[in-house]
Design brief:
The structure is a homodimer. Chain A is mainly alpha-helical and about 290 residues long. Chain A has 15 helices and no strands. The first copy, chain A, has a single domain, classed as Orthogonal Bundle (Triphosphoribosyl-dephospho-CoA protein). The radius of gyration of chain A is 18 Å and the shape is globular. Chains A and B meet through helix 1, helix 2, helix 3 and helix 6 of A and helix 1, helix 2, helix 3 and helix 6 of B.
Chain lengths: ~290, ~290
Amino acid sequence: MSADPPGPPPRRGVAANAQLALLLEVTGTPKPGNVDRHHDYDDLRFEHFVAGGVGAFPGLKRAADGDRVGRAFERAVAGMSEQRAGNTQFGALLVLTPLVRAAADGDLSPAGATAVVDETTVTDAADFYRAFEHVDVAVDDPPEGLEPLDVRRGADAVPTLEARDLTLRDVMAESADVDGIAAEYVGGFERSFAAGARLRELDGPVPDRAARVFLELLADEPDTFVATQHDRKTAERTTERAAAALAGETDPATLADELVAEGVNPGTTADLTAAALFVALQEGLDV
Amino acid sequence: MSADPPGPPPRRGVAANAQLALLLEVTGTPKPGNVDRHHDYDDLRFEHFVAGGVGAFPGLKRAADGDRVGRAFERAVAGMSEQRAGNTQFGALLVLTPLVRAAADGDLSPAGATAVVDETTVTDAADFYRAFEHVDVAVDDPPEGLEPLDVRRGADAVPTLEARDLTLRDVMAESADVDGIAAEYVGGFERSFAAGARLRELDGPVPDRAARVFLELLADEPDTFVATQHDRKTAERTTERAAAALAGETDPATLADELVAEGVNPGTTADLTAAALFVALQEGLDV
């Protein structure tokens, strides 16, 4: 007749921390140009990110449980896309997946994450391409000669991947100079880890720290998603405006309203903020 | 070498819909007197609800997977409490747990949910009492003669439950006239289902519908949590103010600011809104 003892609160698992990172990222405000607790775009609203974060969990859980990184990512994207707005956090899932695996393997460090990336295969690359079939992701035209590997081809690119024996790491290396997430893959997730440490160093509510770290990342390097959606000059100008906000010359809240109005969406910087939140949560950041 | 086919997006499961309901509930704004997308209390903020919703998932999953209702609830509360603010959505989890089980059993209806409640045992009642050990929940003093069953006694009340052979349904029946969640347990979850249907009938973004339904529920019946924290008169006056907001005589946003300032928190109405969101999501409401 006796009930089991209730036991202690279950510590959040690795996949749950990744989900929480996604949700805290979109909660932090102002994150100029991005959907956040106080900003929506007309067709891309806060609740789409919430539903996307809920839907991504089974894919993240696969990464934590040892399924291959590409497959876990593709499943996370499939689940994320189960809401009306399409792509909410594709890039965040891409940068989170190897970090989740590294954490589950017990080595959430630049070396541990690099080891995960180095072990990816052609099959992971194929999964990555298939993930583009679930959502529209804004990307540039591929460089000359790489048209067969345009990500917009989705699964149609898989025979070329196989013929050229390209792993997920190889694919990332190809675009590391124009894509901030790919750069993380081949550079030991340097900015994710640095921003994660910064989150723990700051004071105050976690979403406020996330907004601060977002602004610091944006002021530090041009956002590659802005460069893709607009052009390099717009991305550089956005970084200058973020630096001005950081220096107190303009109000971050004003910059947020301006960038949303201009449709300038530093999405890669938001993705890195999610990665940083995950690292910090794993290292003990309390919410 | 070939990757598995990606397959269709995985439809959100029952537990994921319950988690999404918790998160959408706190997103809808204005929900006068409650934490929502645009309102915080000093020590109880939006991010605590987000972390609570993430942490509650394993308990909700237990309910969906067939663990007993009391145990699933107690585990959901344990996970919810893994953030600094303590109690965020205790009542929402209490009303959701039998609904999740009914949905998993394939009969999310007043009869199906009532069957789940009717099958609860003394062990479920013991789990319910143990859940109070994870968080502080504002409750009234028990009626005369029921002091041994004061929920604040937690596990210490279990021998009395066993001696009196009280099931979770019995415990709920005892407080149905002073607690809106307990009333749902013994009344076929009438308000939850009606509000769920209303959510599907309304137009517009789901959080806006949730805010509207919250106000309708509050205007319809005094909130029992307000009656507990303050008194019956305050609860009745709050219902009159909600009715005035609904009639367009006052702005719901103004009422929201006023109630937060007064510390009048219609938490039971928010809990019922979460239950309604779950019902609507299960019945096909798109986000």
